[in-house]
Amino acid sequence: MATPNRAVDVAQRHEFDELIDARSPAEYALDHLPGAVNCPVLDDEERRIVGTLYKQQGAFEARRVGGAMVAQNLALHLRERFADKPKGWRPLVYCWRGGMRSGSMVTWLRLVGWDAQQLAGGYKSWRSHVIQRIETLSPQLQFRVLCGATGSAKTRVLQALAELGAQVLDLEALAQHKGSVLGSLPGVAQPSQKAFETQIADVLDHIDLARPLYVEAESRKIGRLAVPLPLLEALRASPCVEIAATPQARLAYLLRDYAYLGDDREALAQKIALLHGLQSNETLARWQAWVATGELEPLFAELMQLHYDPLYARSQGSHLQQLGSALRLPADDLSPEGVRQLARHILEAETSP
Hints:
Blueprint (H helix, E strand, L loop, with lengths): L6 E2 L9 E4 L3 H6 L6 E2 L5 H14 L1 H21 L11 E4 L5 H13 L4 E3 L2 H16 L4 E6 L6 H10 L3 E3 L1 H5 L17 H12 L7 E5 L4 E2 L2 E2 L2 H8 L2 E7 L1 H11 L7 H9 L7 H13 L2 H24 L2 E10 L4 H16 L2
Parallel strand pairs: 1-5, 2-3, 2-4, 4-5, 6-8, 6-11, 7-8, 11-12
Antiparallel strand pairs: 9-10
Helix pairs in contact: 2-3, 5-8, 6-14, 10-13, 11-12
């Protein structure tokens, strides 16, 4: 027998068998609760129609037309998405504010006999939870910040640390961007700012605060996404591990890690053009010529020397407060095995007296 209909808060979401996002596909794509499935009671076009009716003809007409659409969509979900759900299935449903859209779905699911409940406050309550969790947890994190000049394989070391059982927050993976002017990934769009923050909060919710959390040094923005300020402040105040790789090792790593840039010279030329005003016209012309002929080795060598290394010297020294006392690891091999060895050295240093 279904329990009485009750207001469920965000902290209770794990008590349910499934999270159902009753909002439109566009709202869901922008951001949603981790693990939620999208079963819209109004699709994007229907939502637009109902909104227009509400503004032009009032609430009654919007509800009359919208109610028919909702009934049709709920019937479809009952026939298809929910057809195989057992009698004891317990879904938690949410919409934007915890209003009529999720309320309608909960009513119908409960009429069937399922113990469906509604998330109080809807997605807006989840958004407040994300902001609060990042603000509250960031100062408590035992960050270990991986730093080093561009090409030092920091992301690969972070991944190797995770494979060895360390706690890791890979902001660039969450942001779908490598963090540099060349860092956009081919064919991969960055998430929305809200979705980026949702992913961060979800990782932090599973962190053991008593253990180190390894993270890569980041600037204020990763591509077009901003690192949440409480997290950035905690990161910049934390102990550092500096990978001091040789220029030769860094260049070899960059040529492997960015090899795909040679497949789309037009896109690479556009990225190089973004450095206008930061480099002389003569330098940019030389780099563009190398792009046109696919000569990545001299291009990356000069990008390191003239752009990335001066940028690193300016930004890391001023932003990372404990860089002067960093654990410094020389590296002349950034192959997969060399990266694993660096990760092992980092963990050994953490556990040594």
